[in-house]
Design a protein that fits this description.
Number of strands: 7
Strand content: 15-25%
Strand order of the largest sheet: 2-1-3-6-7
Number of helices: 4
Helix content: 40-55%
Order of helices and strands: EHEHEEEHEEH
């Protein structure tokens, strides 16, 4: 069994979602999703299936910020994978991790490794 955290992928562009999920699986991370809506993402978060998350901000006419709010409240590490920057989000999210789209496999894997480290540090404290 893997000691790597379950990674939620929230992305509305199917090809990007599949590429990210494939990269994570190849690196040994269990993937939750990918999902393309806030409702689907919140359902997985509420079911305690998510240990770290990658969120695209703009999703088919809605934003993933409600998911980010729940993750912040739960102390679940996450990063935004997006064309948006810190100035494009409300103040509570400006110190979050941002990965610029298009994100390389290396950028995704480095970010998830960083999120996993944050999660491990929180579990120890």
């Amino acid at each position: 069994m893997s000691d790597r955290p379950h990674v939620l992928v929230v992305e509305d562009e199917w090809l990007i979602a599949e590429d990210v999920a494939s990269d994570l699986l190849a690196a040994g991370y269990p993937v939750v999703g990918p999902v393309s809506s806030v409702a689907a993402a919140l359902q997985l978060v509420e079911a305690d299936k998510v240990e770290v998350a990658l969120l695209d901000i703009q999703l088919n006419g809605e934003t993933s910020l409600p998911v980010a709010e729940v993750l912040l409240a739960r102390g679940t590490p996450f990063a935004f994978v997006t064309g948006f920057g810190e100035r494009d989000v409300p103040v509570p999210f400006r110190n979050c991790k941002f990965v610029a789209k298009p994100a390389s496999e290396a950028a995704i894997l480095t970010t998830v490794a960083d999120l996993a480290s944050l999660r491990a540090a929180k579990k120890r404290s």
